[in-house]
Specification:
This protein is α+β, with helices and mostly antiparallel strands. The chain contains 9 helices and 27 strands. The protein folds into 2 domains: 98 residues, Fumarylacetoacetase, N-terminal domain (SH3 type barrels); 288 residues, Alpha-Beta Complex (Fumarylacetoacetate hydrolase, domain 2). Strands 6, 7, 8, 13, 14, 16, 17 and 22 form an 8-stranded mixed sheet that branches. The N and C termini lie far apart (56 Å). Keywords: Calcium, Hydrolase, Magnesium, Metal-binding, Phenylalanine catabolism, Tyrosine catabolism.
Length: 416
């Protein structure tokens, strides 16, 4: 355990040690920190304490304003850095514990910090890897007989999103405007989206990378998965439904995507790995792996309207059909090059029960049902002023490995 006191319900236990980018009022420089309890350990202050064979040659990565350079060092460097942090923060190690001056410079209270995007995100890909979500949406738009498209059980379906509009938790979201066609007998109209939605997702940051033309084999995919964040892929359903044929999402998605600021390393999540879902039909050989890479992460979405804050979704990453290793292997099998800091998202995570549906599109079943927020307030889709918060954690024996909040508030549309 650590000499830093950590509440058992804190997301940031000694078993976690997630990475993030922060600044403070007295030091506006963006720098790399590690969360533990209610504290942030500033790695730029203690970089000289990393004496391992890899990091000792690259200590300058902890002076950078993003995690990209650290991610680029690769798998062995990440493991080495984590081992060093576990030693330095342990209750039995005196280096930090007993050096009052160093501790005063190295630790910052989280309440005094401003969090920023953890990486310079060069590219962002969003998958569609929850069978229940794909089935629900398919039933709504195509009927039960054609709910899943023929390719869905054969490969991880995905699309390329807009990296420039990925934002950190706490940043407000402006309601988008665009073309919609509410009446199929009339021409389309322009105006603010009336069906603004959420999507409960998780995403992972890529580290290392590959040369163009050289796929990442699934047996080595884990060496390129740095860590995970929570994600809300805000979606304007009415804009999306009119524009998506034939090339898929565009303006209905690219106006904003929120992620949590702390990146939980895969080493912290591995104790919570569970057997992968049974996949039938059996995937092609390049998508096959037997090691457990499905994670028991509890997920929650709360919605605050004008009065109450209500948990409207309870789900888990266990509902995913395609694993992150399969997503990454498929993404690069054609020779596509992946770079450190690229973000790959799960797609909406939905389960078999209505409480576990990962979007308001499903919760309201395309607007036909009301979502109760208490006090007589209901929703089918989001209203201006609504605040959405995603949280998630793995539950250990007396500790948690969590992600912190992924939150955003809806602002009114720009007047055109």
């Amino acid at each position: 355990m650590s000499f830093i006191k950590v509440d058992p319900t804190s997301d940031f236990s000694y078993h976690n040690l997630p990475y993030g980018i922060f600044s403070t009022p007295d030091n506006p420089k963006r720098r790399i920190g590690v969360a533990i309890g209610d504290q942030i350990l500033d790695l730029s202050v203690i970089k000289s304490l990393f004496q391992g064979p890899v990091i000792s040659k690259h200590k300058d990565v902890f002076d950078q304003p993003t995690l990209n350079a650290f991610m680029a060092l690769g798998y062995e460097a990440w493991r080495e850095a984590r081992r060093t942090l576990q030693v330095l923060l342990s209750a039995n190690e005196s280096t930090l514990r007993d050096d009052v001056s160093l501790r005063s410079r190295a630790f910052v209270h989280q309440s005094a910090a401003t969090m920023h995007l953890p990486a310079d995100i060069g590219d962002y890909t969003d998958f569609y890897s929850s069978r229940d979500h794909a089935t629900n949406v398919g039933i709504m738009f195509r009927g039960k007989e054609n709910a899943l498209m023929p390719n869905w059980l054969r490969l991880p379906v995905g699309y390329h999103g807009r990296a420039s509009s990925v934002i950190v938790s706490g940043t407000p979201i402006r309601r988008p405007s665009g073309q919609t066609r509410p009446d199929q007998t009339k021409p389309p109209v322009f105006g603010p989206s009336k069906q603004l939605d959420i999507e409960l997702e998780m995403a992972f940051f890529v580290g290392g990378g590959n040369q163009q033309g050289e796929p990442i084999p699934i047996q080595k995919a884990h060496e390129h998965i740095f860590g995970m964040v929570l994600m809300n892929d805000w979606s304007a359903r009415d804009i999306q439904s009119w524009e998506y044929v034939p090339l898929g999402p565009f303006l209905g998605k690219n106006f904003g995507t929120t992620i949590s600021p702390w990146v939980v390393p895969m080493e912290a999540l591995l104790p919570f790995a569970e057997p992968n879902p049974v996949q039938d039909p059996e995937p092609l050989p390049y998508l096959q792996h037997t090691d457990a890479y499905t994670f028991n992460i509890n997920l929650f979405v709360s919605l605050k309207g004008t009065v109450h804050k209500v948990t409207v979704i309870r789900s888990t990453v266990m509902y995913m059909y395609w694993t992150m290793k399969q997503q990454l292997a498929h993404h690069t099998v054609n020779g596509c090059n992946i770079r450190p800091g690229d973000l790959l998202a799960s797609g909406t995570i939905s389960g078999p029960d209505p409480e576990s549906f990962g979007s308001m599109l499903e919760l309201s079943w395309r607007g036909s049902k009301s979502i109760d927020l208490g006090g007589g307030e209901t929703r089918t889709f989001l209203k201006d002023g609504d605040e959405v918060t995603i949280t998630g954690y793995c539950q250990g024996d007396g500790y948690r490995v969590g992600f912190g909040p992924c939150m955003g508030t809806i602002l009114p549309a720009v007047k055109h």
